[in-house]
Target: Major facilitator superfamily (MFS) profile domain-containing protein
Amino acid sequence: MVGVTFKTQATETVRLTEEQLQAVSHLDPELVRIGHEVVQRQKKESFIQAWRNHGRAAGWSVFLTSALLMEGFDTAIINSFFALPAFLNSFGTKGSNGKLTIPANYQSGLVNIAYVGQIIGLFLNGWLQERYGSRKTFIGGMILMTLTIFLAFFAVSLNMLLVAELAMGIPWGMFQTLSTAYAAEICPIQLRGYLSAFASVGFGGGSFIASGVLRACLQISGEYGWRLPYALQWVWPVPLALGCYFAPESPWWLVRKGRFEDAEKVLKRCARPGFYADKEAEGYVAFMQHTDSLEKLDAKGGSWGEMFKGVNLRRTEIMFGVWLVQLWNGNMITGLTVEMLENAGMSTTGAFNMNLVLSAMAIVGVAISWVALGWTGRRPIYIAGIALEACCLLPIGILGTIPQTNARLNAMGALMIIINLLFHFSLGPVCYSIVGELPASRLRSRSIVLGRFVYVVSAIIGSQLRARMVTATAWNWGAKSAYFWLGCNLVCLTWTFFRLPETGGFSFAELDILFANKVPTRQFTKVKITHEAVEIGTEKQAFDHDEKAEIEHVEGVAQGETVLDDEERAVVQHEPVPGHVPTLA
Model:
């Protein structure tokens, strides 16, 4: 696509290029107008109205997201196994303090090998979901999950567990991004953020279940004290696979595949009976075609390489940043809470009790985030969460540098609980809301996959560091590691403030227009989007009219840029171009 650059005063309206108008000229303008009105009506719905009108879509989104309970469960048990008596009796070696412990290289290996499996699963999903759709990919992942659990349950050595964790990581990687992309595309605008954020309930809820199971397994001294938690994972795959067989496919995927009638049927099926009046569902599908046609200009084939070209490059950079901030914000210190508290002097029962409360905060935090999402945007929640976590990390580090007492151990545990609550109120769930909305529709599944890949690779590095910071036979920093995480937190806070835009409340087409016009990060909520263009906002805090500010507007991938003067610019009219469909947002 040939880019067009023009300069105009700040108060003027900027228009889309003739090429973009031509891209949608084959569509029925009346149907697109109807679809646009449906989108605007959805944006005005309250939370309760949205649930009443689109409860079926929300229900299916929650159902598929529940697959993440399995990953949250296993991630929690493998980290807590390192302090579980039954597991230590089977695989532990005596450390310098005379206590049984799992060597640091095996601790990090068991965690990281699952990440390697997740990387394989992520890229498998990026290809399978776009080729075969969400339903078939999900069912295939569940079949694979059922088979891989056998490896963990019958393991007789740490090396066998390494193989088992690698194999189980593959379907986990598939579910991580499949559910987020599905939620973003099956749900209307007002529920999109909430249902994408529900992914955090899957991770947190699985961790909470695992904490309860492990607390009960403290009384089992034999090998079934650690085999039983693995066996419980067989509860999930069969009912989830059977249920998914009846789930609707993503309507956006159906549109990308040219199955417009099927997409219309899915829209009607997922909405309250009678919600779509005459031709409204057909119009909504036409609106999806309109958005897809615009995105084809910058992502013609939806390939991996197109994520690094033109306007998609900025979206990809933000995608990477959002995932990395979710990891390096400082919450990672809570991953080995049981072992760290035990090494500091707390009893095994007390440490597992503290871990149970900590895990419960995941569910409480997401509930709070749902309330917050109804009152404010994604960006302020993200910034607030990072800043508040910093206020907890500093006192944890201080407590780690002074002699330990029961009161100080309890204070340390309480601060860990608060950090987990803050994380699951902010970065945990809101990350999934942002990454589900941020990419272009044609690149959504692949973009989320690539972002999660960056997260997983970074998590391998982080877990290696964390294990050595906490383990008594390695660096043994203990709570003093909070100083390291505080430094990471401040870097994350800086990036978020300057680079993360607000994505909530916009349709996918509106986000396309905002990025195409290179709207500054902190101005996304201060511009007015009209049917055909982005009108640079009239608020004085955004731009000073008296300064005759010049706004550079770039649409598409600039391969040969042309600067238009006033006479040439008049070609792009405020009125709809005859024969073309208005670029509705």
Observations:
- The two ends are 20 Å apart (CA to CA).
